[in-house]
Amino acid sequence: MNVSDAAYDTVHQHPGGSVALAPRMGMSDATLRGKVNPNTDRNLLSLQEADSLMGKTGDFRILHALAATHGFVAQRVDAPASGTMICALLAASAAKGDLAEVISAAMADGQISPNDADQITRACAQVMAAIVQVSQHAEAAAARGGA
């Protein structure tokens, strides 16, 4: 997903859409709709407005789209709210298995299509997110002084 589509979806898929969000953003709903319209290059969403939009909605797809555009994956660094390091490790192993399955299916016809590449990218992001969870559990355990 590109940044323009992410901004559009953030606004239009939020409960109440632009009508609910615009007053919280200090603008009219027509202005907000115009700023996130991917079919125009006038009156675009500023970086500050995108930051505010993510903060107000809790929807970070703009951040993820921007990171992906430049070859990065964004991952929260909060300490895990629950679970254990072993459970996180098992989840990471499962994600690696899912990645292997996606790659196997993509290579079955001997070609990698754009859709295949997108699925592989998403599966890789899931593996990376799961691995980060393992490290977050390790950091939390170290901070507690235990396992």
Topology:
Blueprint: H1 3-12, H2 17-25, H3 29-35, H4 47-57, H5 61-69, H6 85-107, H7 114-144
Detailed description of the structure:
14% of the residues are buried. The termini are far apart. The mean pLDDT is 90. The chain contains 7 helices and no strands. The chain is an all-alpha fold and 147 residues long.
Overall outline: flat
Distance between the termini: 39 Å
- Proportion in β-strands: under 5%
Taken in chain order, the helices and strands follow as HHHHHHH
Number of helices: 7
Mean pLDDT: 90
Broad structural category:
mainly alpha
Helix content: 55-70%
Poorly predicted regions: none
How would you characterize the largest beta sheet?
A: none
Cα gyration radius (Å) = 19 Å
Number of strands: 0
TL;DR of this structure?
With 147 residues, the protein is mostly helical. The chain contains seven helices and no strands. It has helices at 3-12, 17-25, 29-35, 47-57, 61-69, 85-107, 114-144.
